[in-house]
Amino acid sequence: MAKPLNSPVTARLAALAVTAALLSGVRPAPAGAAETGHYRFAAYWGGLHAADFALTIRNGGDSYGTAFRLATRGVVDMILKLRVAADSAGAARGARLAPARYQVSYSNRYKARSVRVAFDPNGGPATAKTRTDRGDQ
Q1: Strand 63-72 to strand 83-93: parallel, antiparallel, or no bridges (unpaired)?
Q2: What span, in angstroms and rounded, lies between the C-alpha atoms of 31 and 7?
Q3: Which pLDDT does position 137 carry in this prediction?
Q4: Residue 70: what pLDDT?
Q5: Region 74-94 average pLDDT
Q6: Of 45, 36, 56, 43, whose CA–CA distance to 16 is shortest?
Q7: Contact 28, 98 (CB under 8 A)
Q8: Each residue of 3-15: b (16+ CB within 10 Å) or e?
């Protein structure tokens, strides 16, 4: 099983992505209505371009989906070469969201990892699969 990335930079970028999602005001759309929001961000560290990331939120009334992409840039990219892609989908039942699947893939200069989670629609345990590839990327 893969260990989570615990670096301060990764934690800050993840916190920024979650904050962006919360500030976007995601809520279930009325039945039959569909809404999609696209958000693009550039992160700077000490005045230098450090990363670009994008968040897409799809709200289809009775379903939802999210997509997140992140890539380091500039000097930070020369050091880390971090890439992250995360997607999720599920059902919206009134004001409640029921997750169906989640996957995240991330890589840096030295390794690539992915995690896929499938949620049981009947409320049973979720199943997770992890993969780690090591080597020169």
Answers
A1: antiparallel
A2: 41
A3: 36
A4: 97
A5: 92
A6: 43
A7: no
A8: eeeeeebbeebbe
